[in-house]
Amino acid sequence: MDAALLHSVADGVATVVISHPAKRNAMTAAMWRALPELLDALSADRAVRVLVLTGAGPTFCAGAEISSLAGKEDPQALAVRAEEALAAFPKPTIAAVRGFCVGGGSQLAAACDLRFAEEGSSFGVTPARLGIVYPASSTRRLVSLVGPATAKYLLYSAELIGAEHALRAGFLDELLPAGRLEARVAEFARILTTRSQLTQAAAKEFADGRTDRDAHWAAEAAGSGDTAEGVAAFLERRSPAFTWTAGG
């Protein structure tokens, strides 16, 4: 099967699948280039409320396909552009990880808001094996997740760690038994689609460190009706019908 990024949208959830089975879902240059464009299209789709990133078959992503990156473009710049586009996606994002999540795979998983994994998965940040300087932005994102000591452990050694270690380090949010990942991610994504997009969008910006939008979000909240609806639904013991969406 050709290397590709597959996607579908159902019930408010966009699923993007890294598909390159012959190379353990390694990202080609074309795939790195395609990801920001795909994310732009999905972010503009008002039917999309949550994005799930996963890999085809038993592997999430084994990194970059080195042989495909020997062109004129800077391979690191391609990866960083894709990573930043994923981090900037305006709605909640979940990485659903099975098997190897290594190199560029870990870079993409770290750019998601949340990471759920199946037992037996392996994680690694491997530029030290190739003599590559890991991007400053990617390093800072890794440190924000696991702290400086674990980030140095991973970057200095390029060793793989197991899923339990990744969970303890803070890289993972949930670790699921074999066979439970898909159902749990679907369940959690469904929960997110029922919550206030206003709350989620503001929380994402604040949690990611933006400090110049307090007044903007106060104004959005005041004009949205979501708070009144949430309180009314709570008092009436019913599910809320939130109406705020990004862009109006």
Give descriptors for this structure.
248 residues, 9 helices, alpha/beta, six-stranded mixed beta sheet, 45% helix, three-stranded mixed beta sheet, 17% strand
What does this structure look like?
It is a single chain. The chain has 248 residues and is α/β, with parallel strands linked by helices. Helices cover 45% and strands 17% of the residues. The chain is built from 9 helices and 9 strands. A 6-stranded mixed beta sheet has the order 1-2-3-4-6-9, sandwiched between helices. Helix 1 (29-44) runs parallel beside helix 2 and helix 2 (75-87) runs parallel beside helix 3 (104-111). The longest helix has 22 residues, at 136-157. It starts with a strand and ends in a 13-residue tail after the last helix. The model has no long low-confidence stretch (mean pLDDT 95).
Task: Tell me briefly what this model is.
By secondary structure, this protein is α/β, with parallel strands linked by helices.
Write the layout of secondary structure elements.
Blueprint: E1 4-10, E2 13-19, H1 29-44, E3 50-55, H2 75-87, E4 93-97, E5 100-102, H3 104-111, E6 114-118, E7 122-124, H4 136-157, E8 161-162, H5 163-169, E9 174-176, H6 181-193, H7 197-207, H8 214-224, H9 226-235
Parallel strand pairs: 2-3, 3-4, 4-6, 5-7, 6-9
Antiparallel strand pairs: 1-2, 7-8
Helix pairs in contact: 1-2, 2-3
